[in-house]
Amino acid sequence: MGSRNTTNQASSQSSGRGDEQVNDQGRGSSTPSSERTLDERAGADTPPPQLNSSTDSDLATILAYLLRSGQMRVIESANARANALSSSDEESDTEFGLAPTSEARIPSDYKPDKSLINVNDIKPLLSYQCGETYNKRRRNVSQMVQKREIGGYGRGNFHGNYSMGDRALMQRAYLPNVMTPVAKYMDKAFCGVYSLNGDTFLTACQDQKLRLYDTKDGHFNLMKSIRARDVGWSVLDTAFSPDGQHVIYSSWSDYIHICNLYGDQETHLALDIVPEERRFCIFTLTFSHDSNEILAGANDGCIYVYDREVNQRILKIDGHEDDLGCVRYADITSQIFYSAGDDGLCKVWDRRTLSESDPKPVGVFAGHSDGITYIDSKGDARYLITNCKDQSIKLWDLRKFSNPQAQEATRRAVSKQSWDYRWMQVPKSTLRTSSLPLDSSVFTYRGHCILHTLIRCHFSPAYTTGQRYVCTGCASGAVVVYDVLTGEVVTKLKGHRACVRDVSWHPYKPELISTSWDGVIGKWTYCGYTAMNSDNDRDPSMRSEVDDGIDSLRQSQRLKQRVMHL
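Above: the chain sequence. Below: its structure as tokens.
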């Protein structure tokens, strides 16, 4: 998605039609890489604006873009390299052309405003889901394990099993902290998502391939590789059907493509959206809960609904004034859904009242000062989060919509933005931490960086964490995890050499997958007893008796004393 202030759109976007020849490198185009246009080699979901080199300033702009996107690098002489003080790691990153962007520069004295979240219902709700309200005297992990083993563990538990709150309480001490690469591609990876049951994982890469991995045994075993069709630039979004039988994907194309995952006969169908725009791209898509409808959002600002039973588009809603970057259902009923885009507004729609002739949302959230890159719902049709180019994530309550004055304030703030997030650094004015007038969000999270592409954010899973955290990718090459109630950065997972675009937390295991533009799919798990989660740094309520001299294992006081006397 490009900046709304860009007046000259690129005109040479490759359509990637199915009749194109596939060359030896696997590209869906017969054009040599050296002859590709600047747009086709750009580093974002939307190609960069067309550049004119007729003046020195234009030339400087082109050079800055090429350097930042990694398409050009400065080569030092032997003497200069010998005198350089940079480390070998930094040199390798530069040569690779994907050195991470500097981290978000948040003022050191910044403190998030907790006044609204402290009185909102989400605080007691998450406290209960995380076991804090009924587990006050049973926070020692060793004691919790012991009580479970003897079968007398806690109220409301049957057969000695942990409740959701118990699991979340224990998991807080064992958040993922070590990355193991499970896949490595030669091109930028754009999407990575678990299926609803966590048994399969789907990735989409700029090499125009979808790869499906079997993750049942904890390993990533390649099950299937699908050659994407009709791809312009890259596959930009993917989604599993709720039954896990199909996947859909989108790109710079008039079509949504759907593929089956199982069965003897493979199907790969193109679903025509019938757009009116010549240069058309579906940035976002998702299945309804019954898998019968596909909800999508595109660069023309419209919301599309495709009915799989009648095999045609049944609705086109003019929803936003600019590119539409994300659509998401509020819960499994698939009646309420959200949409957001480059106009900075997040809108709430009721599927039962949608009308092409009178497209009115049931409510609007306003408070961001730039385009929104992603939406994630908590799944309860009440709370949602939005990731934004103003370098923040906001938490919203469905019962508290924004008034027209707040919406106008957002429109004014967005219209004043004059930078392009795809290849420019974040301007200082964007890093301001003060809220817009009449901002109706419940809480704001800052500490990550949104550049280059539509970076995604998600609530952590309910089963293992009680949805206590928000995780997001970052242009610095890190995964940032926030505490929902405090806004603090619980951990910043660093291991990639380029922008992390997507993050997917396993629904039932303490594992997190990061998808990065360095081509690496990283699996994050907890490993060992590190300084990051030591007794001094970890939540005091989660501390266990730890014997530093016995292989750094958490043990009960009685077991510790027994070992000491051996």
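The mean pLDDT is 79.
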